Amino acid sequence: MSATEITGVKLIPVYIMGKRYEVPEGLTIMKAMEYSGYIFIRGCGCRGGICGACGTVYRKSKDYKIYTGLACQTVIEPEMYLAQIPFYPANRADYNLDDLTSAPEGIYKLYPELFRCVACNACTKVCPMKIEVMDVMALLKQGNIAKAVELSFDCIQCGLCASRCFGELPQYHITQLARRLYGARIAPRSRHLAEVDESIKSGRYEEPLRKLAGMAENELRKLYHEREIEPWEEGDDWRPEETGYL
Ligand code: FES
Fold it and tell me: Which among 30, 74, 98, 239 counts the fewest CB atoms within 10 Å?
């Protein structure tokens, strides 16, 4: 009697690091490897396609192509050849954001290999987040940091782009620098945040905080439950009646 007949779960063959295993159909690559006895100490994080830790490469049966993906998101197929990438050693520049301005020359100096891009688009094809990586590189070469940041917003830093790049660009590190520069030097400052910051520094909340800190737990609970709550149907101009804390 086969294992499938005993458990009721269909097992399919996959090759992990060249060795054949039979694993339940429908598993992700990560779960299939764990089912086969592999333990992830690194190269695994959120398991939800967000953290970018689990870049993986695989080949399908009778297919010449190398495929890439996230091990926690990619579902196995029969006869797949799997190999996990524990870490891709792409170049990462050393820098202090305080020494950089909003000018793109800072990026060019730290990552001159940006100009080695041959526009082959391999980076875009492997991106599990469907980012137009090659376009992002082109925008940065043109000095358009804001647009490059907008286009690369979904990057999860898995590094698969760099793993397939002919020009050996570390696209994910370059775009991370661009996003940092944008946040620190280019994005418009929030007026409201600045106002709140000022009012905190002015000591405005010291007295109410002291009062709260001196309250008993039941008093705090009462205050919390009886607080004014913004009604769902109100628009942006809703204000509480008690404005002493605003
Ligand atoms: S484990 Fe986080 S993306 Fe796969």
Answer: 98
**54 CA to centre of ligand 1 in angstroms:** 5
Please tell me the distance from the alpha carbon of residue 130 to that of residue 196, in angstroms, as a whole number: 38
- For residue 136, pLDDT over 90 is answered with yes
Same domain, residue pair 68 and 127: no
Task: Calculate how far, in angstroms, residue 213's C-alpha sits from the geometric centre of ligand 1.
Answer: 41
User: Please, what is the Cα angle at 176 between 174 and 182, to 5 degrees?
Assistant: 105
Are both 195 and 168 inside the same structural domain?
yes
Q: What is d(CA 169, CA 153) in angstroms, rounded to the nearest whole number?
A: 18
Q: Give the structural domain span for 50.
A: 3-84
In this structure, the chain runs to a length of 246
Same domain for 154 and 207, yes or no, is: yes
Domain total in the chain: 2
Please check whether residue 222 lies inside any domain of the structure. no
CB distance 72 to ligand 1 below 6 Å: yes
Distance 156 CA to ligand 1 centre (A): 9
Distance of CA 38 to CAs 9, 34, 35, 59, 168, Å? 20, 5, 7, 19, 30
Q: pLDDT for 79-95, tens place per residue?
A: 999 998 877 889 999 99
